[in-house]
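name: query_chain
kind: protein
chains: 1
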Amino acid sequence: MAMKYQVICLLAFCCFTSAIQLFVIRPVIAQVTAKQTEEKTTEEPMIDESTQAPISLPAEVIDQSPVLQRWLESVPDVSSDIRHDPSFKTRIQAGYSFFPSSNSTSGFVVGVDDVFLGNMPLTLSADYQQNFRGDRTAYGADLHYYLLPLGSYFNVSPILGYRHAESGNDYQIDGANIGIRARFVPSRTGAADITLDQSWVVGDRQGLSITQINFGYAVTSNLRLSTDLEWQSTADEGDSRVGINLEWALD
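structure:
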């Protein structure tokens, strides 16, 4: 009987303790915590980073740094800049050419590739090539409009321009040059690239197909070496050319 009363008393004590904790102690703790939080917020207000004063730098440091000037005006979209900053540069080239199909004669080629026209993805290229004997000549100029962001590792563009080509007594063609260019740039710094051009010259009496592959690789930040492989063919005749060029990349 005594054990029964002890158990009842113990249960009653536990219920009383739980009630005290639920209705008295917890509300008091909650009030104290809320008060401490309010005091901390009052003493340490949150700082709005957008209202902070700009970094104080000497005027001469800012004047000598275009990057700082740009960042102080507004924070640039770096990701967008990377995508649209060209992965290739304008290049001036001159080199030696070998014409296997023209009695293995030698010659030269000079040109300029991808001169940017304004802020558009539109470039101009032009070249002149000739063997030293003078019976194999080609020259022309083309426009390229790149369809993908200029910072891409791969890009394509239509070709539209003018081309003159002649090979001894075999053919002489003048006309519009229409085609497509594909370019692969494994290094955005211009260290290397591969360009494939396929175009067709629409002449008065006959057409000419031109296929050209260019492998370019950098020696320094501006000086490059490139190798040209070119094939020209009409319905009846075909010619080929191999070139080794020095290129100077413009900043």
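note: Residues 45 and 51 are 13 Å apart (CA to CA).
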